[in-house]
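Workshop exercise sheet. Pairs work together: one partner reads the sequence aloud, the other fills in the structure field after running the prediction. Swap roles for the next sheet.
Pair: D.N. / O.F.
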Amino acid sequence: MSTRRNFLKVVPAVGAALTASCTESSNSASAKTSPAPLRPVVISTWNHGQPANAAAWKILSQGGTALDAAEAGVRVTEADPSGQSVGLGGRPDAEGNVTLDACIMGPDGDCGSVAYLQEILHPITVARQVMEKTPHVMLVGKGAQEFALEQGHKKVDLLTDASRKDWEEWKAKNTSGRLPINIENHDTIGLLTLDQNGDLAGACTTSGAGFKLPGRVGDSPIIGAGLYVDNEIGGATATGWGEAVIRACGCFLVVELMRQGHSPQRACELAVERVISKNPDWKEIQVGFIALNKNGEHGSFCIAPGFDYALYSPEVENGLIDSGSKIKG
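Structure field:
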């Protein structure tokens, strides 16, 4: 899994500062015993989280809300055609259709989600509109698309030439079109924010596993699996093989572990152990979590090496951190 991306490298000085920050996070027993809050903070998955963080930070540094920042951050990644695992340019399913999943959660506990959404550039914004303009939490498929169009979104061809070529090459090698889903190419962006008022929010968006079976939905749009935020405690988001995260209710578990007094770092470690216990094939997959608590302390952990996450805070200007892993590289 660690070879499927070319990750950015953090300069030694920044890396040392980030390592110290992670150590402090790991050693913290709970929000109640932590030092003065560190605000604002943005944390997101993978190296494509850095431009997302920058957009979110612009809002937070001007006194904007955690919810606005979370949405704005992942919209950057959704609109980037160079990324083939989120939004525009995402790899299609087995039938050649790009289908998108996303969810968002604010500090008041409200949430919105869309799944199997097609031809809409910003599923995260549709998810927020589901949250704010309907009595529902999730809309899927055709209903989600019709709702998006009613809200003023326009249809967009999300399949780029690069992703079409990859699909055609995959299809030529897999004539049945129904072979097991490829474990690669499902690197979600999940992003967590803490604003100057001390409020938390989160967003998660993806195009899912490349060449998946039509109709497949992973953990990313499922509240409690791919994302969970509790404004009294903290938030968590996940990346990797969605089925494994769903089996463990991964992000809800991370937040509940923080509620019990564990640091964000330790909570992520324990959640990975739970994922492993629920998935006998755990050595063949990747799952990673990031977490952010009410005091701005952060943590992460994953099964296999190669999972990086991006951090932007008053002390760290959008650095990239190599997450710890169960399997040592």
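Discussion prompt: Confidence is low (pLDDT under 50) at residues 1-33, 177-185. What would you look at next?
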